[in-house]
Amino acid sequence: MSLTRPLSVSGGGVGLATSARPFSLSKVSSKKTSSKTSSPPGRMSKKPCMMTMTFPGGSRDPKIRNNAAATFEAAQQAGIKQQEVTADTEKWESRAEVFEYTSAANPTLNPISVYVHPPELHEVGPTRVIPFDLSDTLPTPYPATGPNLMSSFVRIDVGDSIDTTASATSQAFYVIRGSGTTKTDEGVIDWSEGDLFVLPASKTGTTVHSAVDGGAFGGAALYWVTDEPLLKYLGVSATEKRFEPTMFRREMMLNSVQDLADEKGAAGEELNRLGVLLGNEACPDTKTLTHVLWSLLNSIGPGIVQRAHRHNSIALDMAVYAKPGVYTMMGQALDENGEIVDPIRVDWVTGGVFVTPPGWWHAHYNESDETAWVLPMQDAGLYTYQRTLDIRFVDDEVANLKNGRIRGAAYEVTNKQYTNISCMLQKQLSDENAN
Hints:
Elements: E1 44-47, E2 50-53, H1 62-77, H2 82-94, H3 101-104, E3 116-117, H4 120-123, E4 128-131, E5 150-157, E6 161-165, E7 170-177, E8 179-184, E9 187-192, E10 196-200, E11 206-213, E12 219-226, H5 228-234, E13 246-248, H6 250-266, E14 274-277, E15 294-300, E16 305-310, E17 315-321, E18 326-331, E19 344-347, E20 353-356, E21 361-366, E22 372-378, H7 380-385, E23 392-393, H8 394-402, H9 416-434
Antiparallel strand pairs: 1-2, 3-20, 4-5, 5-12, 6-11, 7-10, 7-12, 8-9, 8-11, 10-13, 14-15, 15-22, 16-21, 16-23, 17-20, 17-22, 18-19, 18-21
């Protein structure tokens, strides 16, 4: 993996939507119109070389004028000067903007591109946090890897300790290398390579990590992901713990994948996708790591191609283990055969992280002779709850297109109770109309 930088997109680059433009409303003519030519309330009236908007209760409505006068009179009685009220009102009005719908419905934002955070950053150097900060490209006035997530490497030399602080509802730590301990408001835990633990909002938001063993590079390394950018965007602080601290041991996760392989093998099922979603007892409906974070321990066997899929969440993919010849192809569109158009190739390197942009199609290839492992971190806990994740697999989409279908959402309507209620209401209305 190269140093953190955007990879060039072949085939013309990233397309941008038409820029929005402010939409101004022309003043309504003061000339009176006859009742024959006036428009119904809320409709546009048609005149040569002119278009006006007429609404009930407009600025010339006597009720509005009387209400405004009464408001100023009440303000004066309360000791508020009319000039004060006028100044504040004008200030509020000056902030209002309106846009023409078709050009502004899909506003142009800075695209999220493909970036890598190479393992060399945490393999050498002193104890420190190494942020994967893409705030200049998003842009945001605070550190961020994606709109909702911030990821970093944490290197801890043997015998050292380091504090990590985040104003977040969810923090996840995956142990890339080494072993040690972490002290939190919730208690002290030990960890070793391949473990993963998540922390909820806390009083201080501070954790202290200490390294006991540093593995081959003389220092332990953690992959740290938080939802702090989401809170920064909303202008809020985490005040409530939404789940309990949770630990996923390496052995438990690997055994779960092996059990899955045994079950599928015994049933004669294809072993193309072998992975386990990491859930939390506090998130039984979304089946996600936390209410915001989502993660998967995914394996891809030698010679396997995992066909393309896409989702609306961003993915910050940690290559847990990969020999040369393992890579991801990604792009924004598919051809008629389900192949990615003008794909970008990102090679997996053990201990490195890369960004899969939201909505992009991506497929994984293993041309090596060993099983490769990847641990993506996503904001898909939030998307799943909002019913907007919209994960799609290429074979399903190609089949739909061949059948002349384009889906609006990638899930079925399953709320039978609502469906039954709707049918009952329709029958009731039909009966009332009949009577």
